[in-house]
Amino acid sequence: MDYILGKQGRAPGCIFDRKPDQTHDQEELILCRGRFAVILLNRFPYANGHLLIAPARHVGELADLTPEESAILMEHLRRSVEILKKHLRPDGFNIGLNIGSVAGAGLADHLHFHVVPRWHGDHNFMTVIGEIRAIPQHIAQTFAMLLPDFLKLLQDINHE
Question: Is residue 87 annotated as part of the catalytic site, yes or no?
Fold first, then answer.
């Protein structure tokens, strides 16, 4: 919560723009970076496997996306859900997009989707009252488990 509320320092710059020449990076939690899109694990997830999917180009509005960027983002979103189903077996998903800071976008100038796996009974009063999130797997383990499939996604998209 200290990070979210701005009490703990944030690294400068946009998280989606870091290491632009890397296809993946564990330190930055980049699972997949291609020509048109980037997929990261959320460093402060609502649930295990919480992904962020953004256009590679720094853009804040849906209307600013090219048709190709839009199509590739949707394909990344679709394939990401399949990868999460394979590894984490969630009962459902929350998939959302906050446009503008008033809508809750923490990075309002770089459009991004949240993909949050959900399980029956995964959250309770502790999240709201105690500011506690129970994540059953360390983020480094989740990254290592998902990385091979996201690198394959990148390879497949680059060959289509």
Answer: no
Catalytic residue among 24, 76, 112, 114: 112
pLDDT in tens, the chain (160 residues): 454 455 555 566 788 888 989 999 999 999 999 999 999 999 888 889 999 999 999 998 999 999 999 999 999 999 999 999 999 999 999 999 888 777 666 777 889 999 999 988 776 555 555 555 566 678 888 999 899 999 998 888 776 6
Expressed as residue numbers, the domain containing 119 is: 30-159
Q: Is residue 24 part of a domain?
A: no
* DSSP β-bridge partners for residue 52: 40, 114
For CA atoms 4, 116, 24, 29, the dihedral sign is positive
Residue 103 Rama label (left phi>0; alpha psi -120 to 50; beta): alpha
Number of domains the chain is built from: 1
Q: What is the phi-psi region of residue 68: left when phi exceeds 0, alpha when psi lies from -120 to 50, beta otherwise?
A: alpha
The whole-model pTM stands at: 0.81
